[in-house]
């Protein structure tokens, strides 16, 4: 036998102990194998959570009505008018002519050789309103009607800011709906005061409290006085560079006058942006359904699900050789995730529409578990049921009263039909009051919001007008994207099944770590015992070998005599 334990050793103690310890380490190897499997599962659940989060991002984008209320607005003359739609406009066309653009008022005063020239001290009060000039009628005098939506701007001018540049900076520092600039026209510096907002309702009136005691003359700070009803040099001391003007247009022959060039309330659901004037015939504005945008949204939904499906299949796949099984093969939690998602997608939506399932718009499951989109069937569904496509995916509500409309909902809003009662109509100055589902709703302007704790919680509706009392019902439903979003919130939450499963696996890993420490400690003691035992045996055998050698030598010596 080889002797590797040292000079005179009979036994290979290291080899013997190593062989024995390899047998003793079998439980430790088993624990390590289990820990590696659990760690693979933790990694797999991380991949699953990431895939679910990515899918949720796509789903959330489809849970908004705006994704499906897609419309295209086309102007035949974009140098005069452009437009956009919020998706709720009536499909059709309009003849529009623009005869005047809205403008803001500009006032000016010159006579300053330098921006450091002193203007004067005192205070300025800038008001906004509508100036109506006197007409050739003894019973119609001029007037200035204040704009109730704006408050007067009060500016103090003292020795620290009484120069031309100082007055300009003081006006701009006020941060109100007026700006001031200094323009050098080649011979003099002019202070130009401009209303930030267009329209006749934003005409300017400037009152001065002059430090020299005369508030109306063209001397000192009163150079900046401007009362459109006064006379030059006596309170009307600024020159008008540009009058405040309203935009004037015709829509299908109807006269429209607005204070802005961006008009949101002429054609419901459409924002008109005026940029020029028509010459000759009116331009045409057409509003059409944007089917391509709807298809893009649905295609994104199909692609997002298929990516998730691929990830789930890879994590749970079975390989006949056993060499490439998924880390979550046979995992009940992973199966539950798959089944819950498919259950939502295979259940018809209670949206009160004839289009209430994915198959009706050409979205179907294939044999391989993937989704596919039949473009022909989809186009037919959109053409015949365009307004119902949104309710198939997003959270929507249908009101029986034409003056009651759905605004929004939250994740706490439950599907159902809720009675609406109005006790006070709302406005910009007065909040609406009433009940939804018999519970007192929260009023804000013209909207009512479902009460906390009620099934209608978070359901917000708009009441445009009508009578007080019972106002019919609102039927709320969640489309596929909305339902999936709620489900994914639950799956990915801190107290969801995925968190519970990973917490359980981590607990098992900690238990195995403790078991590993215990086994390792025991193995150390066993190895020490083995080494001590075989070391003693080695000493004994070495001694016996020496005795045997000695006796052999003695016998040989006796025989030689």
From TrEMBL:
Location of this chain's protein in the cell: Secreted; Bacterial flagellum
Occurrences of domain Flagellar hook-associated protein 2 N-terminal (ranges): 9-105
InterPro entries from the UniProt entry: FliD, FliD_C, FliD_N
Start and end residues of each Flagellar hook-associated protein 2 C-terminal domain: 244-545
Record key words, sorted: Bacterial flagellum, Cell projection, Cilium, Coiled coil, Flagellum, Secreted
GO terms (BP aspect): bacterial-type flagellum-dependent cell motility; cell adhesion
Pfam families: FliD_C, FliD_N
CC terms in the record's Gene Ontology section: bacterial-type flagellum filament cap; bacterial-type flagellum hook; extracellular region
Quaternary structure, from the entry: Homopentamer.
Sequence similarity: Belongs to the FliD family.
Function: Required for morphogenesis and for the elongation of the flagellar filament by facilitating polymerization of the flagellin monomers at the tip of growing filament. Forms a capping structure, which prevents flagellin subunits (transported through the central channel of the flagellum) from leaking out without polymerization at the distal end.
PANTHER family in alphabetical order: FLAGELLAR CAP/ASSEMBLY PROTEIN FLID (PTHR30288), FLAGELLAR HOOK-ASSOCIATED PROTEIN 2 (PTHR30288:SF0)
Protein name, entry field: Flagellar hook-associated protein 2
Origin species: Methylotenera oryzisoli
Source lineage: Bacteria, Pseudomonadati, Pseudomonadota, Betaproteobacteria, Nitrosomonadales
